Amino acid sequence: MSVRELVVLGTASQVPTRHRNHNGYLLRWDGQGVLFDPGEGTQRQMLRAGVAAHDIDRICVTHFHGDHSLGLAGVIQRINLDQVPHPVAAHFPASGQRYFDRLRHATAYRETVSLTEVPVLADGPLAVTDGYTLDAYKLSHPVESYGYRLTEPDGRRLLPALLAERGIKGPDVGRLQREGVLDGVTLDEVSEVRRGQRFAFVMDTRLCDGVHTLAEGADMLVIESTFLDEDVRLATDHGHLTAGQAARVAREAGVRHLVLTHFSQRYNDPADFERQARAAGFEGELSIAQDLMRVPLPKR
Questions:
Q1: Active site residues
Q2: pTM of the predicted structure, to 2 decimals
Q3: Contact 34, 9 (CB under 8 A)
Q4: How far apart, in whole angstroms, are the C-alpha atoms of residue 97 and residue 120?
Q5: Which terminus of the chain has fewer Cβ atoms in its 10 Å neighbourhood, N or C?
Q6: Minimal CA–CA distance to 243: which of 259, 256, 254?
Q7: Cα separation of 80 and 53, whole Å?
Q8: Crossing angle for the helix pair 72-81 and 97-104, nearest 10 degrees?
């Protein structure tokens, strides 16, 4: 069965807390799994969340601060220990190649899996699969950072009333979908465009063009909101967003489901982030991320 959901493995900014692990997010996209920003402790969180190494097909690192990448060593070694049967691709800023190399080869282990490195050199597409196109766009942080976006190809949705008008039913429906035309009736005449789903992942950054490009029209936007609005100066100085800034981006971009995460340890009440996001005018679905929660993508 097709499953599209976000599995939250960790939500802390900079340091873990008693209730929040370092970052880590697994996107289940049908039969594929994309692991974003595996911070320290990700392997343990995967176990708690029921995520296996076999679920990972692609790893995407936004930047090489420790809370977003220190778990790479353990995850890569676990992929090899479990002898994952399929190749795994790894994406990360090309400027951080030396950090990736150190983490990949941090200790001795036996490599059994094909791990393909595809560093991010510039804005644009990184991979094209049958299920999605993966793009990266540069963000604004003290170290080079990229956000990621998955875009499903547009499809077509059959309209039962129009099929009935033309007497198309049963096995003929399948024939029409496969061949594009049946007894002079084209697929376009009895269907409409179904826009492909879009998922965006934005971590440590100030407001910049890349944030808006990644968020535009997203069905789900996972975005950092390290600070509350009263600490906007701190956010700007350190290259981060506030809850209100993230929510305004989502509102302006037409995001359907907003997931706020990457919270500073200085705040104790997650409800404050929700209040500020709503105050900024975001009216769509809203989740304040918690470790080990699962968030389904909105229905198509």
A1: 67
A2: 0.94
A3: no
A4: 10
A5: N
A6: 259
A7: 9
A8: 50
